[in-house]
Specification:
The chain has 92 residues and is an alpha+beta fold. Helices cover 42% and strands 33% of the residues. The chain has a 4-stranded antiparallel sheet with strand order 2-3-1-4.
Length: 92
């Protein structure tokens, strides 16, 4: 049997992770769309009074860019359900 304090510590660690929610954009206008999407991500967070660590975009190449927002894991479901990201990952 696992002691309760270990179980609580594991749960606390999991809920304190940062989650990066990502939107992918492809095509010749991908960079401009990703930049613009970041504005909407910030507007949503401010309107809903939700905390976020970072918003940004990344150009992978000329035809593929991504926009992302890094949030607390406890807020991830709120963001996910409202904004429908293409994917997510645990942030470093």
């Amino acid at each position: 049997m696992i002691p309760e304090w270990i179980s609580l510590a594991k749960t606390d660690f999991i809920l304190n992770r940062k989650i990066k929610l990502i939107w992918d954009f492809r095509g010749p206008e991908a960079l401009e769309i990703a930049k613009h999407h970041v504005i909407h991500l910030e507007e949503f967070a401010l309107k809903e009074e939700l905390y976020f660590f970072e918003t940004n975009f990344k150009a992978v190449n000329d035809l593929y860019c991504m926009a992302y927002i890094t949030v607390k894991e406890e807020d991830m479901i709120t963001y996910r359900d409202a904004l429908v990201p293409h994917r997510g990952e645990v942030a470093q």
